[in-house]
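Hey team,

Filing this mostly as a record. A colleague (T.K.) asked me to run one chain through the structure pipeline before their review meeting, and I want the input and output archived in the tracker in case anyone asks later how it was produced. No errors, nothing strange. Just documentation.

Input sequence:
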Amino acid sequence: MTATLAAAERDAARGQKLAADPATSVWVAASAGTGKTTVLTDRVLALLLEGTAPERILALTFTKAAAAEMAARIADHLGAWTDRAEAELNETLAALLGHAPDKAETMRARTLFARVLDAPGGMPIQTIHAFCQSLLRRFPLEAGIAPHFSVMDERDSEEMLS
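Output structure:
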């Protein structure tokens, strides 16, 4: 039984590593507590290390809590990378990237925290609902809605239905 469990854990870790690879196109869907936020955080960090501009990354999740958690984890990692000892940083980056980081990747890791803070509009990490709302706000006429629409909250919706 333990050999089967260990094999399942290795397979899951392999799958998570693949999903975090920026070279792949993925949709992450899994049960609560399975590591989705970790995978998405690792993916964003890998994209940043690859040189992707923070404002060109869009991370979407279902809940505000998950979006806040992901933003906090990314900030924690980037903040720690600014002054981490060279050997420890290289070890951390190697685990994330799957290869020993070159000098450019190490230097980029040290500057990413400031780059994310300075990004115009920040790095968007938001809920799917917030993203869709922002699209509707930018293109109300194309969506066939009033330009100054407001989203109905649950209480107003219940009142109108009754």
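Quick notes for T.K.: Helices lie at 2-20, 36-50, 64-81, 86-97, 103-118, 128-138, 140-143, 154-161. The first strand starts at residue 59 and ends at 61.
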